[in-house]
Amino acid sequence: MEATDRMAAPSAGTARRERSGGRDGRRSSGRTSALPHRAAPYIVRNIPTYDILGEESLGRIEAAADRILAEIGIEFRDDPVALEHWKAAGADVDGLLVRFEPGMLREILKSAPPSFTQHARNPANSVEIGGKNVVFAPAYGSPFVMDLDKGRRYGTIEDFRNFIKLAQSSPWLHHSGGTICEPVDVPVNKRHLDMVYSHLKYSDRCFMGSVTAESRAEDNIEMARIVFGRDFVDRNCVILGNVNVNSPLVWDGTMTNALRAYARANQAAVIVPFILGGAMGPVTNAGAIAQSLAETMAGCALTQLERKGAPVIFGNFLSSMSLRSGSPTFGTPEPAIGSMVIGQLARRLNLPLRCAGNFSNSKLPDAQAMNEGTMSMLSAVHCGANFILHSAGFLDGLLSMSYEKFVMDADFCGALHSYLAGVVVDDNTLALDAFREVGVGKHFLGCAHTMENYQTAFWDSAIADNEPFEKWDIAGRTDAATRANARWKQMLADYQAPPMDPAIDEALVEFVDRTKAQMADAWY
Amino acid sequence: MEATDRMAAPSAGTARRERSGGRDGRRSSGRTSALPHRAAPYIVRNIPTYDILGEESLGRIEAAADRILAEIGIEFRDDPVALEHWKAAGADVDGLLVRFEPGMLREILKSAPPSFTQHARNPANSVEIGGKNVVFAPAYGSPFVMDLDKGRRYGTIEDFRNFIKLAQSSPWLHHSGGTICEPVDVPVNKRHLDMVYSHLKYSDRCFMGSVTAESRAEDNIEMARIVFGRDFVDRNCVILGNVNVNSPLVWDGTMTNALRAYARANQAAVIVPFILGGAMGPVTNAGAIAQSLAETMAGCALTQLERKGAPVIFGNFLSSMSLRSGSPTFGTPEPAIGSMVIGQLARRLNLPLRCAGNFSNSKLPDAQAMNEGTMSMLSAVHCGANFILHSAGFLDGLLSMSYEKFVMDADFCGALHSYLAGVVVDDNTLALDAFREVGVGKHFLGCAHTMENYQTAFWDSAIADNEPFEKWDIAGRTDAATRANARWKQMLADYQAPPMDPAIDEALVEFVDRTKAQMADAWY
Lengths: 524, 524
Fold this sequence. Notes:
2 copies of one chain form a homodimer.
Chain A: H1 3-7, H2 10-29, E1 43-44, H3 55-72, E2 74-76, H4 80-89, E3 92-94, E4 97-99, H5 104-109, E5 115-118, E6 127-130, E7 133-136, E8 144-147, E9 151-154, H6 157-169, H7 191-202, E10 207-209, H8 214-228, H9 230-235, E11 239-245, E12 250-251, H10 253-264, E13 268-276, H11 285-306, E14 312-314, E15 317-321, E16 328-329, H12 333-349, H13 367-382, E17 387-388, E18 394-395, E19 400-402, H14 403-420, H15 427-430, H16 432-438, H17 448-457, H18 469-474, H19 480-494, H20 502-517
Parallel strand pairs in A: 2-12, 7-17, 8-19, 10-11, 11-13, 13-14, 13-15
Antiparallel strand pairs in A: 1-7, 2-4, 3-4, 5-6, 8-9, 15-16, 18-19
Enzyme class (chains A, B): transferase
Pfam family, one (chains A, B): MTTB
Family (chains A, B): Belongs to the trimethylamine methyltransferase family.
């Protein structure tokens, strides 16, 4: 039952990866498993980040964040320990309000690792978060789910498990995520147990734990200890907790207590202000970015005060507003371009980055959904995000997890594997021999270079219809959503659970049952 | 009837722009016409290009292009004048095959302008092509059109005019385009007359002429002379011709004769290899890019041999292939990332760039269409393209012009106006006063900074539904395609023709009638 035993058996991981690749290949595309980008459990980007602002503008944003921190400050509610940490660190604590001298948080943040490994129970699926690495995780936090057959309804634990199975079955997602949807048929105070047990049981990838109470975070960390071993967990990151700032400029105790619980256990908090411009922050991008920087630096620094050297992810969630309805909007151009700046700022702090995702406000897996989602997701990969939460399933302004959009998005994550591989320039790809063989005015279809390279040359979507119109017509004139509907059902039918040590499973079930028995059901 | 008279009346242009903005505002969004990005007839980008390759890799691609040009060469068919030009310039001409010493084409290209103005008959709509400028033009060349009501059918002159009207009505397109769809109800040898007359009559923006025969190019240039005046046309660009390489490494006489006709008249050719990787070029991106560079340099240089200093646009069209069906694919990741390299290469040549567009292979305006289109279109704006043909309407692998996708794409072009405005960093956008006013834990909805900035803060789509689920539900649960269907019908109903001098109209009609009368109808 010790982690080290399982870590010594890399063949299991390799086997799973090959099985997953082969299965997907047979089912959908006839692809071989030879595609090189399928071999790795995450992406190592081969294109640079897209840096849109120069030194002077970045410096002005950082200076504005420093002034927000020094002149206005951040309130820390319901967490006396956090206030004690800030006092000890030399901040100006006035009641709940904490003000920070310019440079103070940057100094504290120097102890945070620029990159760290999150270990999966299958070591072949462990991911490196930071640097040039990109990890795709499902969307997080919707109360509803939807599909083309049944429309929108509240999520259940069955939906929750289904999405874990779909993520586990996709070669293009790298992480099992966290609260993929709210399982509203489980009491609120017990969900964290069923959710993390489901991640551990139905996936062998990395996952996220609860942040809705310090005790729940600690329960989830305890479950991780059962799987990985207590010593291993104390030395390594095996669970992430996604904590939100209560923007503007408030950290509430629920979040900071969870944040500190993860940090204390040497696990990684993801620090995320959700700023809807014009509501939780200024209506102008630069100000919202400065605020985001201030709030995130404070949260990240608090992890280091709790445990120096604990892994932490610099996160953010920029959003805009419809001027007509006042509704939040998602996947719009201003947050997309703002993400590029956030990426530059995170790199100047030398911290791993979480940014954007496949955002949309559409209520259907339609053209709006993929227009908004694609612009938003590309901003995430361009800005250099290392951990991309909300990579798959996000619809309805994060109120609904869509089965069809989930598999569309996962497919797009596959396309991004090819995109992030960039343009390789070497003798083979320059293909001068092919030009010599083919000459002028002939085609390259059968030439030696094409035969040697075609299997790995182009991304081959499992959702897109690339047939001629006539064949598409005869085949039933499907749209992408209809094909996605068939695909998620097939994926669930084909799903195979990853192997799990029965002793660990038993210990987890025992822990979950025992913990549940100690509490009456609570539904709010 | 002289251009100079009309050029002296800028108030007409201003009026049209305001009318268009106001009309659109009332119809769809309640926006005022105060949005700053609506004031200009094209975009001046405020974000840098996305340069993904370093000097060494770019140099290797350029060296490969040089070797293709020197060792393999390019065939120029059915155009003895072109061969004479090459001989006079010092190229190695062997029958139809022309080989070029490394550096020779680059030297010739130094006379091509890095940027030029294309003049519109309404001077307020003239566009600057090159530098930091971005011009969106409709898709080009589909034999079919489609809409949700009538499905796919051959395009007619009525469809052609409809798309001109839709483009003219959109504040987010900058150019009327060229062969928006093939008007198959008009004889092949007379289409160029009706098409260019329609552009001139129903739009007052810039447009493109025919390239399917030298005489047709010259007819279209003659029509431009009627509108702009002969001297004005000889001194200024008023018409573009989009000429395709017959890849790999063949220029056919139809295209080079049209290319030379435009250059001779001091009008701009757009030089475009269409390379479907694995068919018309190598299956690997670097080789296809090197080939594209070689073919485009040769075409651009030929314009300079015909008339030194003639404007020319460095174009390209990269595409990939489905490994399962052998079909061409559009809007896929490899061409999208390849575009970034093409952009870098064009800038090293100091030439205006045409690259990518809103590509898709989908047969419907669905999630696939906008996923592919968005990735492709973003690559065009990231790579620094100055003239983006295929910005709106492209479906079905360029076989069909879609009414619904046209208005969706035009709406996305609007979003790109906000995206390309970048993140402005100044005292107003940093909003420190707003933080002081609002403090911690309060919202920014009514604060002074929000009130001063909200009208121009966020892109407001006319297609996206950003209402809460319940309001969307009550309003009829529409998808984006259904909303786009209603929108293009409303836009056509609201369309108002731009004013045209009756004497010019009469002269154009007379020219078209006289030219048609000289030819029997030809249907192929």
